[in-house]
Design brief:
By secondary structure, the chain is of the alpha/beta class. 37% of the residues lie in helices and 19% in strands. The protein is built from ten helices and 15 strands. Helix 1 packs parallel to helix 10 and helix 2 crosses helix 4. The longest helix is centred in the N-terminal third of the chain and has 19 residues.
Amino acid sequence: MQINLSFDYELFFGSESGTAENCLLKPTAQLMSLAKKHQIQMIFFVDAGYLVQLKAAANHIQCADDFQKVSEQLKQLVNDGHEVALHVHPHWEDSKFENGKWMIDSSRYKLADFSEKEASDIISKYHQVLIDITGKRCTSYRAGGWCIQPFSHFKRALQSNGIFTDSSVYYKGYHASGAHAYDFSLASDKPEWQFENDCCIEEKNGSFKEVSITSDKINPFFYWKLYLKMRAKPSIYKPMGDGSWLKDKKRIYKQFYSSTNHFACADGYFASRLMAILNGHQHLNKTRMMVLSHPKSLAACSFGYLDMFMAYAKSKNYQFKTLRNE
């Protein structure tokens, strides 16, 4: 079994973005300590549009300071053997730093909301800022908000940037609300496949590889437990990040009365499910487990669950790898 622990390194996109200190720097530092303890490598899909905007707003002391600290952490991640990969949230093109805070405009949330030329320029510009910081080209990509469709809209941009591995799809994933939409109903329940123009349709000789995010079916009882735990012990179960999510209230309420298609995740109390997902994979003789999490959404409990998960997986001789070294 190969395990990929991946983290979308980003701020929040709701009414409050949160701070780099609490959403990125502190939780990632704890992740790095865990990785050193267990001698494993992780993948960080970095929201590079944020870095582009930090540079553009460098006349603000806070932005200049955040850019320096985040850059130093990204360099350290690479030095420690972790992978820095490209993560694109193009709504940064419309967001500004004003009056000491980020004013997030998420009306154009996916690359398909831009022209093909604009989308191509965004990918190249965002990729370049990561190259400038780390000295390495990215080889893997994850769409912001899972909005990878239509892939053909920016296929050539990824090709020209030398990126041929994607990890945005999860089995039975579906969401449709305003500018935020994806539909993975055509994707198979496989850990990886080659594709060409549609990331959900396998083509054996396709130029691109899809490394799918491991799926997870969650029943309403879990969400009621999570709600009660966060109310009873917020210091243990609430996220470390100090921002607010883009909320889809209908989707949130649905979780409390029907089973939902989710994915393997270490965010907050979701990390408690990792061991069961791994054992299920082992029973089915699956060859890969891709976990998607966010430093901003990790809670104090997440690190304890991750510590146990890493130790257990290592005891089984499973390998924690990046996508770069495949």
